[in-house]
Write a structure and sequence with these properties.
19% strand; single chain
């Protein structure tokens, strides 16, 4: 199941950390490309 959450506050990084902890993937924009965050051991 996919869920899109817009993170606008620095404190919302906790949400991204929880998603990764649960085995999810986080996609985030940088200045030039999009980054993908995930647990490499999951």
């Amino acid at each position: 199941m996919e869920e899109v959450t817009e993170v606008t506050e620095v404190s919302d990084v906790r949400i991204a950390a929880e998603i990764i902890r649960r085995g999810g993937v986080v996609i985030y924009p940088t200045e030039t490309v999009y980054g993908i965050g995930a647990d490499a051991l999951s």
